[in-house]
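Q: what does this look like with protoporphyrin IX containing FE bound?
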Amino acid sequence: MAERKITLEELSQHVKDTDTWMAINGTVWDITGFAEIHPGGPDIIQKYSGGDASEPYNSVHSLKLAEKNFDASQRIGTLNAYFVANKLPAENTRNPRLENDLPEIDEIINLTDLEAAAEKASINDHGFTKADNADFYRKIFLRPRVARAVQDINTKTKILDDVYDIPIFNAPASLMMLAHPDAEMALAKGLVASGSTIIIPTLSSFSTEEIIEALPADHPFYFQLYVSPNKAALEKMVDSLCKLRPKAIMVTADLPVFSKREANERYEKRIAKQKRASEPGATTAGRRSGQARSAGVSIDPNLCWSNIKWLKESTGIPIFVKGIQCAGDALQAWKIGCKGIYISNHGGRAADTAQPTILTLAEIRFYYPFILEEMEVFIDGGVRRGTDILKAICLGAKGVCLGRPFFYALMYGEEGVRYTIQLLKDELETAMQLCGITSLSEAHIGILNTRALYRDVESPQSLSSKL
Ligand code: HEM
Ligand SMILES: Cc1cc2nc3c(=O)[nH]c(=O)nc-3n(C[C@H](O)[C@H](O)[C@H](O)COP(=O)(O)O)c2cc1C
């Protein structure tokens, strides 16, 4: 059957809450009710209801996301206008925050340089925990062993029966298209080319299926899940995960509500101010920040251990809990039969002044060392150096994840991802050789001086009173 042609005029008549249409890249969709469940908040959807939303849509979402998310029955027809043809994504997806001149990639010789390039593009943010995550790695000293044959070296790690060439993974981050139009596709390809794999975020720019298609056949991958407060949406997600079979589902548990994101608020207020200056009648008063807007529709504030147990039982897929911040919760994850823990404080974006993640790893090792033997352990937060990676592995982690650095690396697309991993791999290999080991299986606490770190581990008295 030939597709119905819809004029802009007809489209503009469907703006009621009970009858809403929207054009995205030439297709007209019935999006009635979608504004309230859009993870990016209702404002943007309401603004473009009854019109062509290609431009804002393409700046953060892949072409196919709409097709994957809306039902075929919601497809009304095609837009009978030339407008969309002029708005192909490449031209729209350039994030205005990144329009500064980036340095040449080979001018970047470590992850501090990479962060400085991102500072220029003002996509960095700050907080006490964010800084402490990185600083606490420097509280641990290395105790190198000498006179050992270290010429031949490998950095392999085995997780859930899969062997990766490096213990380096991405920490899942939403909407990577803000950094580059190829977003998670480039991230996935860069990670795989480097001998690792991707942790696909729930709130990705490309659909999960598109990202999986970018992986070699049968390549293992992980999925980070934000548990939706909407029962139907959660069940749909669980069904699709059962079909897609990630190696593990990493349930993010450290963000029942969104924290105050001052960098975002400042950015939004600056944009609002510019808008008021250029459009004197425009009002932005009373609008909540973008992050706050989207929190409630994507993340269930009532997520409990019983829900995590239900996920484990209903999917049969190994579960990791992401956002473990104390030994007691690591124990809880172990008790309900999770296969792994992912130590994280959301890079300091959840509870600011939360303890640094490497200290949490030390706390778990001190109180429940068996957990590090029986569960797979990932850690993120402030990992910026090969020596940081070595320290985390010596303390018992199997994999380290990096959040912001991959966001910044993506400013250079897939090449940036491969380049960043190579920098870290070179640093890790050198650190291992200088400490006298040739394989990560030889990494052990004996090559560390952790006295300063352990001085900060929570005391047994207060630990037990909180369990
Ligand atoms: C097709 C189904 C859609 C899905 C699954 C979806 C999903 C999402 C997600 C996950 C976010 C990120 C939320 C966050 O990180 O806080 C987001 C943000 C956004 N979405 Fe959508 N979206 C869809 C449709 C649309 C449409 C039709 C538009 C066009 C108006 C749109 C425009 C945006 C914009 C501009 C943002 C950024 C909002 C902000 O940070 O202020 N999206 N969307
Ligand atoms: C911009 C940004 C977006 C993020 N989005 C998510 C997300 O969607 N899901 C999630 O579990 N964690 C998310 N995180 C947290 C990261 O997975 C990770 O815990 C943190 O970034 C690690 O710290 P690092 O940035 O210091 O490496 C996000 C972090 C950042 C900086």
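The longest strand covers residues 19-24. Residues 111-257+299-465 form a domain with the TIM Barrel fold (CATH 3.20.20.70).
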